[in-house]
Structures are given as structure tokens and as C-alpha cells.
Amino acid sequence: MIEFKGVSKTFEHHKVLDGVNLKIEKGESVVIIGRSGSGKSVMLKHIIGLMRPDSGSILIDGVNITALAPNRLDRIRMKFGMLFQNAALFDSMTTFENVAFPLREHTAMSREEIVQRVHECLQLVGLEKADDLYPAELSGGMRKRVGLARAMAMNPEIILYDEPTTGIDPIMADIINDLIVTLRDRLKVTSVVVTHDMRSAYKVAHRIAMLYNGNIIEVGTPDQIRSSANPVVQQFIKGEAVGPIKEGLPDRRVLSRWSAPRMSPRLH
Questions:
Q1: Rounded to the nearest 5°, which phi and psi values hold at 46?
Q2: In the chain, is it the N or the C terminus that has fewer CB atoms within a 10 Å radius of its CB?
Q3: Which pLDDT tens digit goes with each residue over 192-226?
Q4: CATH homologous superfamily for the domain 2-79+156-257
Q5: At what angle do helices 140-152 and 111-124 cross, to 10 degrees?
């Protein structure tokens, strides 16, 4: 369904993607993990055609989207739904209007059909009574669920999730994970999830791919990733400060010389 073939992308002399190769099968749920700033979201933007690679190609259902004219690329994009990291809801629109927006923009559905479809999507995410609420009136988890309902509105073949559990509490994060699995299994959509939340990755993935230094360094099932012999993978999934990933870590010699500030003598 989705294939990266030797994809490279550079920003201001910094190579973010360096010959990335990855295949994602139809109906599969693939989670892309990696450090913040490693290029995970850049991969999502390439999949949906918001960015074009400097070299290499991206195939969607066998079509090389890097060579498409804008009008043909727009037709390919209709296959997608996307849950943005911060939901990206329109502040001036109600929950109903946010979910209805793509239906009004891209279909000839009647008002009655739109109302029915919006309510179906909101029911799937457990928000059937939130029609008239504005984003400012919703919790972070509710906004994520409205964003997910909007992503499903057009019956997409592929749903992209950019950090779906960021910024919400652990219980709501697990609810979002359950929704991703339920939608994947019920609607048979292909899912691509970008996250550094390993609990989420293990729960929703058929396969996990780790992006490091511009390349996919390992791909496997959750069990295969847990038991990986690659020290970079092990350090990341365990969240350990010590290991081969050193960029951005403080110098231990400095830490060892750091003493706690002296307390002022107690006044009597």
C-alpha cells in the first residue's frame, strides 16, 4: 500500500532522511519510532505528499506520487485521513462542524447524509453527545477523538497518526490506543503511527520500524523489537540515558563536579 524507495530529504545541510526504504502492506498497522527530531513526522508529510523527496520515490497503492501533477496528487490524498499531533481542529467550529468539514468540501452528500455520517463517526469515538461543543470546551483527549472522527469521515483507506498520545494522560492515551486498534480491525484501514510512546507502539503495531540517523535501522513485530540485539534499539525502547545514542546528553564529568547549593544557616 505504501512504499519508500531510497527516499532522502535535506533541510539546510542537515540530512533528515538518508535513503529510507520501507514497505507497508494493505491493512497493516506500522508504527515508526525514533527520537524527537529524527524525521518521523517528515516521513508522514512525504506519504501524504506535503513534501517531496530530494531523491527516491514514494509509492501509494503502486502509484509514484513524487511524479504526480497537483490535481492527480489531490485525488490520491482522498485515500487518506490524518490525526494531527494537536488535533488541529478549527477553533471557530463546533465538534459537528469540524467533522463535517471534509464532507462539505469534497463530496456532494446531502445535509441529511452528512448528519448521519458525522454521527456515525462521533459514535465510533464515543462523542455522540458533543455535537455543539467548541474545541475550547473539550479536554485534550476529547479533541484527539474529534480529530480522529474527522480523519475517518471520508472513509479513508489509510489513516496517519502523528503522536496520537502526546499531551494526554495515561488513561486517555490507552483509550486512544484502543480506538486505533478498533478502527484498524473494523474498517480494515492501513495505519501509520508516528510515536515515541513505546506502550502505544507495542499495543497498536503489527510491525515497528525504528528511524535513526536518517535510516530505518530495524523493522519487526513488537516481540522482535523487544528482543532486538541492536543496542541503539534497546536503549531507545528502554529509555536509558547510557548507550550508543549520546547526542544531547550532558557531560558526566560536569555532572560529577556539580554540587548542591549550600543551605543558609538556620535563623533563630
A1: -70, -40
A2: C
A3: 999 988 999 999 999 999 999 999 999 999 999 99
A4: P-loop containing nucleotide triphosphate hydrolases (3.40.50.300)
A5: 130
